Amino acid sequence: MALSAVVVGGGIGGIAAAVALAQAGIDVGVYEQARQLTEVGAGVSLAPNGLRMLERLGVGEGIRRASARYGSPQPRLFDGRAVQREPDQSGPGQNVGIHRADLLGLVAGQLPPGTVRTGHRCTGFRQDADGATVIFADGTTATADVVIAADGIHSVLQGFVVTPAEPVFSGVVAYRGLVPHLEDYPAGTMRIWVGEGKHFVAYPVRSGQLLNYVGFVSTDTAVRESWSAPGDPAALAAHFAGWDPVIGQIIAAISGPGGSGFLWGLYDRAPLPRWSIGRLTLLGDAAHPMLPHLGQGVNQALEDAVALATLLGASARSSNVARALATYEGLRRDRTARVQLGSRRQGAGFDRSGSQLIDLRWIYEYDAWAEAAALT
Questions:
Q1: Is residue 332 assigned to a domain?
Q2: Number of domains in the chain
Q3: Distance CA 63, CA 325 (A)
Q4: CB neighbour class for 256 (10 Å; exposed up to 12, middle 13-18, buried from 19)
Q5: Nearest 5°: phi and psi at 169?
Q6: The domain containing residue 357 runs over which residues?
Q7: Structural domain contains residue 346
Q8: Per-residue pLDDT for 356 more than 60?
Q9: What is the pLDDT of residues 330-342, one digit of tens each?
Q10: CATH code at 298?
Q11: Has 213 been annotated as catalytic?
Q12: Residue 11 lies in a domain
């Protein structure tokens, strides 16, 4: 009999895990608390390590059609002057920018109809020698051989693995959103403008039709972690007054046709001492929420998804699940902890001179599927 899995959380990490599990021959169901499967917000950067996983999930061609490629980031001082740095610190290959909704739609399109059940808010969990059961707010339950918690930084299921800890506010808020492509913005480029206590990032998404922007600003006032809280373009303009005029053009376009803006408090957590207990394991932000300064949040969740499915697919029997989860944790925990801490350091480097960008080759050259397959 095939293994069965319940994935709690229908974000990109959870849906990617479901696709990878189904491809491994595992019977999987996804339970999402929202009433429909959607992604709000703006763009996301996909790096070579994440793109490698998306190819394995069967959506490589769709990603190429829906995304916009760009080369190595181009750090600049606040006034637009280029920053001198080593030319290949950013690692090999090209990244792409894609709208989060486009990415989720492409990956979810790989699932058989009925795999995702919306309107299911997880409230509890129990397990025994024969299986694991998730309990939902409406009183229903779902039982399987393994439960995967992909329920985000505020994960309910994380509390069944480790002692719950509140997310840590980074002291930075981000104004983020999308504007239509600007004629003065060079195609196929990511730009990062740096200054004391703040920096601004822009890169193309949706085949270059849109420009994703993020303005990072230090603050002493904690702002809630949210993908959809509205941002104030006037406040953003005040923060970046006197910076490169290209930034001013981007901000001016937020209030125009096709523009959007959100305010995002940046939170992470110290690396967890463990991810798994029995038949329950954590994935993505439930395990390793990270700041966005390496652009690795989604990419690391994709690595988790493929690695976990590879190990579970090779375990064959229900009695082997706990061993497979322990192997998954051993493979993934140190790597994601290093990325978490690197993201903190990168943000600090951005907000000084921009010259202290760390070498990303160790991230980009990694193949999570190959590493997991070698352990089966």
A1: yes
A2: 1
A3: 29
A4: exposed
A5: -75, 135
A6: 4-39+111-166+269-373
A7: yes
A8: no
A9: 999 999 999 999 9
A10: 3.50.50.60
A11: no
A12: yes
What pLDDT digit, counting tens, does each position of 64-120 carry? 999 999 987 778 899 999 877 655 444 545 799 999 999 999 999 999 999 999 999
| pLDDT tens, position by position, 148-183 | 999 999 999 999 999 988 899 999 999 999 999 999
Q: Based on the number of CB atoms within 10 Å of its own CB, is 24 exposed (0-12), middle (13-18) or buried (19 or more)?
A: buried
pLDDT tens digits for 209-248? 999 999 999 998 877 666 556 788 999 999 999 999 999 9
Sort residue 278 into left (φ over 0), alpha (ψ -120 to 50) or beta.
left
Taking phi over 0 as left and psi of -120 to 50 as alpha, with beta for the rest, 166 belongs to beta
What SS3 string covers 297-364? HHHHHHHHHHHHHHHHHHHCCHHHHHHHHHHHHHHHHHHHHHHHHHHHHHHHHHCCCCCCCCCCHHHH
Catalytic site residue from 31, 70, 175, 203: 203
For 142-187, give the DSSP string: EEESEEEE---TT-SGGGGTS---PPEEEEEEEEEEEEEPPTTSPT
With respect to residue 322, please indicate whether it lies within any of the assigned structural domains. Answer: yes
